[in-house]
Specification:
- By secondary structure, the chain is of the alpha/beta class.
- 54% of the residues lie in helices and 8% in strands.
- The protein has 15 helices and 5 strands.
- Strands 2-3-4-1-5 form a 5-stranded parallel sheet, with helices on both faces.
- Strand 2, helix 4 and strand 3 form a beta-alpha-beta unit.
- Helix 4 packs parallel to helix 5 and helix 10 runs antiparallel to helix 11.
- The protein is globular and about 65 Å long.
């Protein structure tokens, strides 16, 4: 769409029409899981805002070219400083200072905050001051997985746009353009849950499949009553700390499939290539144990987002599941 990989075309068209009709708001929250397409939609929206033609985005003017290349002086991307987990108050103060400087080339200045839920409380309070008296030419786009992580006072001053998972046929079409020869495309569409970034990782990352396989083996350890194996689970998570979030997703997908098999809904199984192994686990466990394990993994995911120590988190998860067996 206009040269951007935008899957939510109706949302993008509405945003572009607001630019053409000069009704664009000064602040937005684009809510959606990372990789779902909020960034691409924000980039296209920003291109339309800085385009100098009468029918933006024209895609061929200098402003559109710079926006596409990520070099337009009136489009800024705000993210945590290198080595930091959060967008700090100093970063937002710099944004405020820049925001009150008029645009360099276009009628608008656009700030894309990736990701807004990485603003700490001090940063959010500083950002609120900008939103209370925004420059008429400034447009802020906050990307967030969950808009409720932002202060109510910020949310009340922004237009919320929710980006749902992409439909399977739309996602498949987008993937076919990049990976026409892949033999894992159907699996990627099913497993990704409508998230383009996740589907592309499945197809492009050579470590995905080996990690999925070993994650299943570790899940069988996690589900055994042997308490000593809790330390093996913790070691596994720490050895793969950069992929810990992905491992939790694998475990949830396996547990979901096990539950589906137990309830005779085999046609809905995601990891269909591992059906026999999943069926073996399904025979050994009752539904209550599977449901309980899922709840513990989901809790671990939440704790992970709060930056709880992976070692402590892993031990807690393993012992809780094993003790419930």
């Amino acid at each position: 769409m206009y040269g951007y990989d935008v899957l939510h075309e109706s949302i993008a068209e509405n945003l572009i029409n607001s630019v053409r009709g000069k009704t664009a708001a000064h602040a937005y929250i684009f809510e959606g899981e990372r990789g779902i397409g909020t960034l691409e939609a924000a980039q296209l929206f920003a291109a339309a805002l800085v385009c100098r033609s009468d029918n933006p985005p024209c895609t061929h003017c200098a402003a559109c070219g710079m926006a596409k290349a990520g070099t337009h002086p009136d489009i800024s991307y705000i993210k945590p400083p290198e080595g930091k987990k959060n967008i700090t108050v100093d970063v937002i103060r710099s944004v405020a200072k820049d925001a009150y400087t008029k645009p360099y080339e276009s009628e608008k200045k656009v700030y894309i905050i990736t990701y807004g839920d990485e603003m700490n409380e001090q940063a959010q309070n500083a950002f609120l001051k900008i939103l209370e008296e925004p420059p008429e030419y400034a447009v802020f786009v906050i990307l967030a997985e969950n808009h409720e992580t932002l202060l109510m006072t910020i949310r009340s001053r922004c237009t919320l746009i929710h980006f749902p998972p992409a439909k399977a046929d739309i996602l498949k079409k987008a993937l076919l353009r990049k990976y026409p020869q892949s033999d894992r495309l159907e699996f990627a569409v099913r497993f990704s849950g409508g998230v383009l970034g996740r589907a592309e990782k499945i197809l492009a990352d050579e470590s995905f499949e080996p990690l999925r396989r070993v994650s299943f083996e570790k899940l069988t350890q996690l589900l055994s009553p042997n308490l000593a194996e809790a330390y093996d689970i913790t070691d596994f998570l720490e050895e793969n700390k950069d992929s810990a979030d992905e491992i939790f997703e694998f475990w949830l997908s396996f547990l979901r499939d096990i539950m589906l098999i137990q309830n005779d809904a085999k046609e809905l199984v995601l990891n269909s290539d591992m059906f026999d192994k999943l069926s073996g686990v399904a025979l050994r466990l009752d539904c209550t144990a599977v449901t309980g394990a899922m709840e513990h993994v989901i809790l671990a995911q939440k704790m992970r987002k709060r930056y709880v120590s992976l070692h402590s988190l892993g031990l807690r998860l393993a012992f809780n599941i094993k003790k419930s067996r």
